[in-house]
Amino acid sequence: MKKTNLIFALMLAFVFISCEYDNYEPPTIRVFGQLTYKGNEFLYDGASSRSLLKLTQKGYGKEDPGIGLHVNENGSFTQLVFPGEYWLTLNNNPYPFELPDFPSLGSGIGYDSIYMKIEDDIQRNFEVIPYYLISDFTATVERKNIVLKATITKNPEVTASHVPAPAFVRGFIGTTQMVNSGSRCTKQARAQINDSGSGTVSVSIPISGSAISYRGAYTHNTRDYAFCRIALELADTPNYYLFSNVIKLEGIPAE
Questions:
Q1: Per-residue pLDDT tens digits for 22-42
Q2: Looking at residues 164-170, what average pLDDT do you find?
Q3: Distances (CA, A) of 242 to 112, 200, 225, 237
Q4: pLDDT digits (tens, 9 = 90+) for 92-122
Q5: What is the rounded distance in angstroms from the CA atom of residue 16 to the CA atom of residue 217?
Q6: Which of 62-66, 98-102, 167-171, 185-189 shows the lowest mean pLDDT across its residues?
């Protein structure tokens, strides 16, 4: 009987300890901000897989992988954290732009960090300098295709000693205003760029007739409109692109 009571007491203690660990308060401090270019919103991919900023902590006897700060299509970001000492940096990837606040430590090494002692809500905005500028973005229906066109120009403000050349232009179309490289409601096509990258670029996406077409990609997609976006992919930078704004194309024929 004593043995049974002891086992029961141990099980009860385990339950209370588990509940105590499970019922901790969630983080409430907000780290937020905006990526900008010349005072305007910097247009970003927005896909969850295209993380950029992360907060890390040092010590505690382990390597901290960091807390990713999701950046939206309009360049805004926000994250709830616990109070403490953090270092804000970029993920160790090549990008088609510069962030002067995070100098590169060398190819493949990573980027410098900014120390942040976070006790209350904190806002940090960062200027981004894209390697190329995208302008005059248009979307039209031509025959049986949705054709996206834009003008790209090398940015004279870039300070990097080496700027990768444009490799591809990507076209994205979707059924909602959330158009990025990771959305399931978005389809894309890619066209190679064979010149220096300055001038007009274009990419076509079929309206129907194949699995990659606008209509063939979704069940019962009879919409006469689509939300469109164009992006520039640079050489040796396959996972991050420079994006245009999102525009709505109307008057898409049924076939």
A1: 567 889 999 999 999 999 999
A2: 95
A3: 22, 15, 24, 11
A4: 999 999 999 999 998 878 999 999 999 999 9
A5: 51
A6: 62-66
Q: 177: exposed, middle or buried (C-beta count within 10 Å: 0-12, 13-18, 19+)? A: exposed
Q: Which residues contact 241 (CB under 8 A, 6 or more apart)?
A: 45, 96, 170, 181, 231, 232, 233, 234
Residues 6+ apart with CB under 8 A from 36: 42, 75, 125, 126, 127, 128
The partner residues of 87 in beta bridges, in order of sequence, read: 56, 115
> What are the tokens at 24?
């901790």
Strand partners, 104: 111
Which DSSP string do the residues of 4-63 spell out, in sequence order? HHHHHHHHHHHHHHHHHHHTPPPP-EEEEEEEEETTEEPP----TTS--EEEE---TTS-
Amino acid (one-letter) located at 188 = Q
Amino acid code (one letter) for 245: N
